[in-house]
């Protein structure tokens, strides 16, 4: 298995597909917004995050994983449409805090539906945006564009002072010349150690284009060029 080795945080990050990622620590396994692709679940304690109910961020089949694992918990935005609610599923609204097995989880808002997450584990702060993005559509009115910009920036400002080590944010190629706005603002304002582009489907050159667009940065912008690419941080 080919692994890209980056500066040490002692975790493994795997890009599954689109906005789907896993993060493996010494004794825990986190899954974010899985909806399709090859995934090999870890025997470690597993925590499955779903930022919202859109079909490219949530697949109800993830609930079948608990048939094979008794050490799994789910952390869902409260808009996720499921019927079989049980004690292993925790629903959150924006701006709530919970602690699970020494993992601190804080929910933030979105500029679409659902949530974004700040996860503090093993002294590492991970921000996963879900569909929190600067959705600058060229056909939107000036008023809509300004409203979106304001909403996105206000949400990101809530992270100031949180010392984010890893950020996952959309760089959606459908936004064409404006695909980089959210990531650029996040990197400049929050200054994470690592930035993982996401939400680009099969268009893996988007990751490379984003790196070139941003240019020199103290943040390590991770180049993703295939499904199931693994990074050792």
From TrEMBL:
Name used for this protein in its record: MBL fold metallo-hydrolase
InterPro entries: RibonucZ/Hydroxyglut_hydro
Organism: Wansuia hejianensis
């Amino acid at each position: 298995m080919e692994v890209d080795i980056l500066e040490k945080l002692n975790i493994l990050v795997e890009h599954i597909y689109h906005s789907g990622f896993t993060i493996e620590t010494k004794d825990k396994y986190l899954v974010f917004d899985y909806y399709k692709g090859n995934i090999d679940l870890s025997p470690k304690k597993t925590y499955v995050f779903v930022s919202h109910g859109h079909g490219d961020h949530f697949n109800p089949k993830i609930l079948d994983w608990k048939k094979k694992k008794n050490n799994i918990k789910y952390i869902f935005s409260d808009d996720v449409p499921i019927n079989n609610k049980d004690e292993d599923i925790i629903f959150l609204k924006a701006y709530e805090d919970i602690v699970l097995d020494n993992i601190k989880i804080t929910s933030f808002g979105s500029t679409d539906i659902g949530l974004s997450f700040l996860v503090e584990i093993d002294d590492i702060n991970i921000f996963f945006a879900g569909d929190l993005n600067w959705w600058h559509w060229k056909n939107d009115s000036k008023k809509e564009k300004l409203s979106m910009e304001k909403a996105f920036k206000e949400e990101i400002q809530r992270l100031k002072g949180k010392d984010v080590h890893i950020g996952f944010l959309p760089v959606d190629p459908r936004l064409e010349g404006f695909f980089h706005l959210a990531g650029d603002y996040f990197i400049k304002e929050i200054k994470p150690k690592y930035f993982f582009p996401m939400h680009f489907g099969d268009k893996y050159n988007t990751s490379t284009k984003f790196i070139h667009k941003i240019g020199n940065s103290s943040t390590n912008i991770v180049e993703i060029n295939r499904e199931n690419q693994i990074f050792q941080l």
